[in-house]
Structure formats: C-alpha cells, structure tokens
Design goal:
The protein is an alpha+beta fold. The protein folds into 3 domains: about 60 residues, 2-Layer Sandwich (Phosphorylase Kinase, domain 1), CATH 3.30.200; about 160 residues, Transferase(Phosphotransferase) domain 1 (Transferase(Phosphotransferase), domain 1, Orthogonal Bundle), CATH 1.10.510; about 80 residues, Sandwich (Immunoglobulin-like), CATH 2.60.40.10. It is built from 9 helices and 14 strands. Strands 1-2-3-5-4 form a 5-stranded antiparallel β-sheet, with helices on one face. Strands 11-10-13-14 form a 4-stranded antiparallel β-sheet, with no helix packed on it. Strands 8-9-12 form a 3-stranded antiparallel β-sheet, with no helix packed on it. Helix 2 runs antiparallel to helix 7 and helix 6 runs antiparallel to helix 7. About 15% of the residues have low confidence.
Length: about 400
C-alpha cells in the first residue's frame, strides 16, 4: 500500500498483516487497522461500526488517513481466519455455520449486506469462537464463493449472501471452494463458468441433510435458497440436533478423505451418466466410512501403526505474497528422521523436504499432496499420499 497509514493515538505501527490490514501495538494490547480500498458507502460504515453481536468482529472506530482513504480499527485476532483451517469435522462446521448465519442475519436486519462472505472473512479467537468481519467490501479473491447473479449482473442481496455462506461452509468441509477442481482448470474464467452453468457437487464429508441444505443454499435460482440467514441458521441447528447422537463418531468418520485418485471430478456431473456415477462414488465413500467403524476396541489401522506410515496427513495453505503459497502439514505420531515427499496437483513439480512445510511459486490456485516417509523407508507407497491441500 502506498497510501499513508493512519496515526492511532496510543498505538504504534508494528507490521502488515495482509494487503490492506496492519497491526498496531500499545503497552496493553494490539489492534488491527484495515484500509478500505474498495469502501462501502459512508452510511454503511457507520452502520457496521454500530453493529453489536457476539458473532461479529466489532469496529471500534473509523476514520480517514491524511490521503483520504477510509479505515476501520478492530480487535486483532492472532489465531487468524478459517481460510487455512479446513477441512474441519462436520459438527464443527455446523457450529461455525450457526454462529456466522446468526451474525449475518443480525447485519441484514440492520440493513447491511455483507457482499463478501468467505473463509478468510471469518476470524477465530483463542477459544475457538468465530467472528464475521469485512462487511460491505469485496476482496480480490471473492469469486470462489460468489453467487451467479452477482457475477452476471452485480445484484447483491440477502440471498446472494446466503449463497456465499453455503459455499463457505462447503469449503470448510472439503478444504477448497466448491467451484475449484483439483488438478483441473481453475482460471477465473473456468471458475466463473462453473458458478454460472453448473451445480455445486456434494462435499462427500457431511450427512445427507447438510449436503441437501448446502445444495439449496448454492442454488442458481435465488428463490430456491433459504429466504434469510436466520432461516439458514435454524436449519443448521436442526441438523445439529439430529446428528448429535453420532457426534462422538465424527473423529473417525468425517475427516476421512477418499483415497488419492478417486476424488469426485466435475466431469461426473455432465448428464445422466455423470449423476449415476456420482451416486456410486458417494455410496462407496459412505461404505468406506461405515467400514472404518468396525475396528475392534483398541485396534489401530495399519497406516497409523508404530513404525508404519504416518496416518492421515492434513495439508493447509497460506498465501505469503501474491506470488507465493506456503504449504504446511500435520500428521499423527511424528518420529525422528521423518521426511516428506510432496507433489503439486498438476504433477509438474515434486520434491522432498525434512521439515513439514514448503513454499511454492503460485499466483493462482495450487494444490499439494504429501506423504510421510519414515527413516526405515515405510510410507513410500502410492496409497500413502495425503488428501490435497489447496491455496488460492
């Protein structure tokens, strides 16, 4: 940013947190200052500053820099946003969905449309509470969660916010936008065409009731979506109550990804034959999940056994700058001498590292798979590749 940064009484500038967000510090705390490069109307800024809801990141003050650029001052959330947190268990996604939908409904009742609901605009604190932020603005990567009528005519509405919330929850379940195709063409033109012409596929990681609700929320016809964020929240609560008896099983069932090379692809959704194939794949995944519950008490899958492969690897991505993505991963039971083989979704790049992270040049979407190789050489088979982690 070349615009002059504001002077905040009692605070000193610390460092940038993002392209338009900056950290300021005082002796007794820290704050985040966001420059509104594409600002909402002045009356919307004032309304947002007056919003008080437990699920909304409150604006403490607003002003203009000496160069005339509007800014807002907010609480600093050191734990960041949900963009790199996915995939999450469906029960956690339900909790987040209820909180964000309630917050969005409160804003709508106050006359404020969000216009940019996405994982990066849901912040979290040290206790796991989530907060919706950035009302009335549109970030550079909002396309991935944008309703078709906004793309075609710029018509923002309550129901376009509902669409974006549905796409955000799908992302939190699957780890990427519903309109991103791993190993596919993820240019802006291709993604826009999918949003305009295709239905979002099932995530494959949630009960049927939640999959149905998300499909309705992302319907191309705004009238087919929940009429309000409040209605969306209520239906999420109903699904939560219905699934509560099996919530204890989700750690086994939900994070499980289908094996590499068997993930759902967009071509499956073209025509009747594609729909039949999708049903078959979804059924197979459900049978796999149910099968994973049949382990005897105390038994351990071979892939997580001591000295075997490292079990489920979870890859997350963080954009370091416009040209660089950092991929990091976690896995159960780390051992001395572990090494990590990684490959990109297009299989054009691969490598081996001794630390659980790698930085790659990528100005757009890129997905990475990882496998852990133990010091004794185990973990080197094709079945040991992790689910993809995608950065945007």
């Amino acid at each position: 940013m070349t615009e002059e940064l504001p002077e905040i009484p009692g605070f000193r500038y610390a460092r940038p947190l993002g392209r338009t967000v900056h950290l300021y510090r005082a002796a007794d705390g820290e704050i985040a200052v966001k420059l509104l490069v594409d600002p909402p109307r002045v009356d919307e800024i004032r309304t947002v500053a007056g919003l008080r809801h437990p699920g909304i990141a409150s604006v403490d003050r607003a002003g203009r820099t000496r160069a005339g650029l509007p800014y807002v001052v907010m609480r600093y959330f050191p734990d960041g946003d949900l963009a790199a947190a996915a995939p999450l268990p469906f029960a956690r996604v339900l909790e987040i969905g209820v909180s964000v939908a309630d917050a969005l409904h409160a804003a709508h009742q106050a006359g404020v449309l969000h216009r940019d609901v996405k994982p990066a605009n849901v912040l979290r604190d040290e206790h796991g509470q989530v907060y919706l932020t950035d009302f009335g603005t549109t970030g550079g990567d909002h396309l991935l969660w944008t309703a078709p009528e906004v793309l075609s005519s710029g018509a923002h509405s309550i129901r376009s916010d509902v669409f974006s919330l549905g796409a955000t929850l799908w992302h939190l379940l699957a780890g990427h936008s519903p309109f991103v195709v791993p190993r596919g063409d993820n240019s802006r033109v291709a993604i826009a065409q999918r949003i305009l012409l295709s239905a979002a596929p099932p995530s494959g990681r949630a009960p049927a009731s939640l999959e149905v609700l998300l499909r309705q929320a992302m319907s191309a016809d705004p009238a087919a979506r929940p009429a309000s964020a409040g209605e969306f929240a209520e239906r999420l609560r109903q699904i939560h109550d219905e699934s509560a008896p099996t919530a204890a099983l989700e750690a086994v069932v939900v994070p499980a990804e289908p094996p590499a090379r068997r993930k759902t692809r967009w071509p499956l959704y073209a025509g009747v034959a594609g729909a039949v194939a999708l049903v078959g794949i979804t059924s197979a995944l459900l049978l796999q999940d149910k099968g994973s519950l049949q382990l005897p008490a105390g038994a351990q899958p071979e892939s997580a056994a001591e000295g075997g492969s490292a079990g489920q690897v979870v890859v997350t991505a963080t954009r370091v700058n416009p040209q660089t993505l950092r991929f990091s991963w976690t896995y159960p039971s780390p051992q001395p001498g572990d090494e990590f083989v990684w490959r990109t979704n297009d299989e054009l790049k691969t490598g081996t590292v001794s630390e659980p992270s790698v930085e790659l040049t990528a100005s757009g979407t890129l997905c990475v798979e990882v496998r852990v190789v133990r010091a004794d050489g185990t973990g080197g088979s094709s079945r040991d590749w992790s689910p993809e982690g995608c950065g945007f």
